[in-house]
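Moderator note: this is an archived Q&A kept for reference. The question asked for a predicted structure of one protein chain; the sequence and the answer are reproduced below.
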Amino acid sequence: MKYPNASTGIKRIYIAEILSVLAAALAIVVMILTAANHIDTNLTGEEATRALQAVNMDTPFVVLSLSMMLLMLVSFFMNLSGIIKASKDEIGFKNALWVLLAGMVFEITASIIQNSSPQVAHWLQVPATLCNLVVMIFVLEGIMILADNLSRKDVSDMCRSCRTYLLYALILSAAAEVLTALGIIGSAGRSVTGIAGHLLEIVAYVFYLRVLNKARFME
């Protein structure tokens, strides 16, 4: 194996993305249940709790939300570990590392102020979504360099195609976040755009996973 650290790192990133897909799927389930029970997504804190209790959704909502957050947390640290490991063989992965950490700061800040400043939290989700896009693009860039060094044109071509799709899919997802932050759409609209955004992310992840799956076996 010419790049053992990159190989191990890409395998970890691959597992992290599978967990991200599962987390996105749970997020869609939560949004569908919220919309189906006509729960206002603007509600926070005790008001949200009372609305959920009124339709007997408080327990399922908590279980699904906690499961989703756990998957996202494990995915983040697995992704972080994989990128750090891969960067030992290809410095291009370090760009992905810094953007990943920046995205984490936006996500944590948004979570902290969600109840006190929901509008600001919505805005913070925009750079967080964009950071997610840029991380994947930098990972693809790193894989392309490795693939070219290993004369694996098939993998580098897949990276280029995937990069183009990710750009369109996740920019649309970020646009949905902007519409939400601007308050242009109502509660039902936010549920629809949220579900659409997560579906786009899942499709993007599938393409991304195909590249990672092939790249982890490069020699």
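Archived answer notes: DSSP finds seven helices and no strands in the chain.
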